[in-house]
């Protein structure tokens, strides 16, 4: 049985290495008869591989595209190329696939031998992406978190809060969310008996992971939950603003990183935030739509001060 399994893997590797093989060529490479090759081809077909066969002098066996994706065999160069491509996708070079790329990378890195992990790390450290605008997160941290989510293992880590204090946490990780600006972990914090959102760049993982857990249902959409949490806790100045335009218009214009949008009749509520009132005012002004600040009062006062300064700056200077 073991000999057959090894031979099937070798046969699969050969079929993936070039477009077409004759039965005689495969038999010679594997050191078996052509009848054994035919039997092994049928075994591969049974477990999901589509292998087309043609007759004649130019005939042979060809690995085709099937209805499902069976396991792939990659050589060293191909594995490194795939890992680097997934790292690039995680950086946001292709919108909307960051989290999927992270899950795939976690699976791949688990299987990479040490020599290939070192090559991937070297290439990554020598590569600079200009697309990322948020704080950087070590890829090893992200893949370890993703693996814990997949394996349903509790995470232990030191967490640096926005006020600079550091505390120990042990949580049940549920989902990693990329907003286009930052990576966040959505997790159940048993010590606080509630869902919590953690910035991945502030997480310092401890080893080993904790015991396995049974996943619990999330109260709403994970992305909306994270955006709501970041709007209220991740910023020094969280804000709620009524935009005097329909929700559909703003949803088409604003990226998820801008904040959480909810319909409000003919208007839109934006939950957002900033570490600077000046930056918050500049962002709201750049939207080019009428708006009303619902919270906080400090932002309303800051806008009044800015309005007075701008009005004074726009007055005609005597003698000009």
Give structural notes.
By secondary structure, this protein is α+β, with helices and mostly antiparallel strands. The protein is built from 11 helices and 11 strands. The protein has helices at 2-17, 23-30, 34-46, 76-90, 98-111, 114-125, 139-151, 222-234, 247-253, 277-286, 297-314; strands at 51-54, 60-63, 155-160, 166-178, 183-189, 194-199, 203-205, 237-243, 260-264, 267-274, 291-295. Helix 1 (2-17) crosses helix 3, helix 4 (76-90) runs antiparallel to helix 5 (98-111) and helix 4 packs across helix 6 (114-125). The radius of gyration is 27 Å and the shape is elongated.
Q: What key phrases describe this protein's structure?
A:
single chain, 320 residues, 11 helices, 43% helix
Terminal residue distance? 95 Å
Widest sheet: strand ordering? 6-5-4-3-7
Order of helices and strands: HHHEEHHHHEEEEEHEHEEHEH
Shape: elongated
Structural class: alpha+beta
């Amino acid at each position: 049985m073991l000999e057959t399994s090894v031979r099937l893997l070798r046969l699969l590797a050969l079929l993936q290495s070039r477009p077409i093989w004759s039965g005689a060529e495969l038999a010679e490479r594997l050191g078996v008869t052509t009848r054994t090759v035919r039997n092994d081809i049928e075994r591969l077909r049974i477990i999901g591989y589509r292998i087309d066969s043609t007759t004649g002098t130019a005939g042979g066996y060809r690995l085709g595209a099937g209805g499902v994706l069976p396991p792939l065999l990659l050589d060293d160069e191909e594995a490194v190329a795939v890992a680097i491509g997934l790292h690039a996708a995680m950086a946001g070079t292709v919108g909307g696939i960051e989290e999927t790329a992270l899950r795939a990378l976690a699976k791949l890195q688990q299987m990479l031998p040490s020599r290939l992990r070192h090559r991937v790390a070297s290439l990554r450290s020598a590569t600079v992406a200009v697309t990322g605008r948020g704080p950087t997160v070590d890829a090893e941290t992200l893949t370890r978190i993703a693996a814990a989510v997949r394996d349903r293992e509790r995470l232990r880590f030191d967490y640096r809060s926005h006020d600079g204090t550091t505390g120990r946490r042990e949580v049940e990780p549920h989902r990693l969310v990329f907003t286009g600006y930052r990576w966040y972990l959505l997790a159940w914090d048993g010590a606080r008996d509630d869902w919590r959102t953690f910035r991945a760049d502030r997480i310092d993982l401890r080893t080993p992971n904790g015991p396995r857990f049974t996943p619990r249902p999330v109260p709403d959409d994970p992305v909306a939950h994270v955006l709501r949490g970041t709007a209220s806790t991740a910023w020094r100045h969280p804000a709620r603003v009524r935009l005097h335009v329909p929700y559909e218009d703003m949803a088409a214009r604003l990226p998820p990183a801008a904040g959480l949008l909810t319909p409000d009749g003919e208007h839109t509520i934006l939950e957002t935030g900033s570490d600077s009132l000046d930056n918050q005012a500049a962002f709201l002004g750049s939207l080019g739509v009428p708006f009303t600040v619902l919270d906080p009062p400090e932002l309303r006062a800051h806008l009044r001060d800015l309005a007075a300064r701008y009005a004074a700056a726009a007055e005609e200077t005597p003698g000009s």
